[in-house]
Sequence to fold (437 residues):
Amino acid sequence: MEIRRIKVAAFKSLYDLEAEFDHLSVVTGPNGAGKSNLVDALTFLSDAHRHDLEFAVSRAGGYENIAHRRTRRAKRPISFEVEAEVSAEDLSGERGVYWRRHLGEQWPSDLSLRMVHGFSFHAASQKLLADFEILEEWLIVSDAAGQLLVDLRFRGQEMTHTIGEHTQLNAGEIAELVRPFLDKDFAWDQWGRAPGATELVVTGWRYLNVAGLLSEHVGRVKVFQLSPHLSRTSGVATPNAELGRFGENVPGAADNLRRRSPDAWQRVEEAMRSIVPGLTQITIVPTEDRRLAVQFKERGVGRPWNSAEVSDGTIQTFALLIALFDPRASMLMIEEPENAVHPWILRHLIDLTTESPRQILFTTHSPVLLDYVNPEIVWLMWMREGRSALRRFTSMDPDLTADLVSGKLSLFETYVSGFFPEAVPRGLSEVLDEVDS
Fold:
């Protein structure tokens, strides 16, 4: 499964923005364009699906800090929409068998789906302490060709639906995809209770229907803005230790990968050996205060190096590799992966991302990265009048597309040349006006 598109409205500087994603996507643009807000939007979506909407709003700083600054608090709702492709393999997995086990069969082996889930919510009034509530939620399921299977709409406890005509699935099978909402005598109290004012239907009922695949996938999106300083710190061993957003707990995440995903750990070690000459072994050892530390054994050196003794580039690269090869993430967003990393190593890391089964999004200003990747996966982001905009770089000027794709023109040199006003940093006073608005 892969996320193909998100649409965001009235969230921070993303007043009305639609972003498409390839298997590997790169976003660049001037400072203050809203790249971090795009990352925050995906983080918000992930939190809403992994936990719930109230948790996502709270973690993001509250409604007042996520609503578009130039929009009156109760005037326009914040809305999110995510579209994902669900493969036949996803449907035929263990969860797909569970959904249809009482029928004694699986879904058709060639059935792939396109699912769209969205919701909008707003503040009840202009008052700072006013509650927020969900206005509407929708789930649209189509086949891979875009033919509608079912469209569900929820407003409070009211539900409406539209069922499409499909040659491969009958009405009963379509109802099975989104059970129990199309059951003849469906009532909320038969399944516990109706969702509350801040509860999403899809996340609360994820274990009952195919929407659970989408919700689970979006809930496993991970964001990283790695710091060499934090990546050096000791870690802790827990059953499901994860790498922190800024590189915290590298030892714990590495130990988890070594124990639970030995093939992935082997890829990390192989990549590190190709990057660090003479490296023979990476070990995770206990510290005197009962925590964990990483050690790097080098050929010809009597004792291993600890994290405090290796270069920023080495520990940063190790943290990046842990993030890339951890199989638990569905999609990775990595901000400025070029920080502290040698250009040759950065190219090697980009090569590894093309082999990864996970979708990856980079935000960057790096000339090495921008000129190394396929220009068609690079997006330019800019801001005007407090609203962020996003567009594929190769579509900014159709006359330049062929030369950019062929490599005749350097994408980075075109980016910094001033040819596109959208790519040029604005004056400081203009940026401050945008921030204060």
User: Anything to note?
Assistant: The chain has two domains: 1-220+330-436, 241-329. The chain has 16 helices and 16 strands. Residues 271 and 321 are 8 Å apart (CA to CA). The longest helix spans residues 35-50.
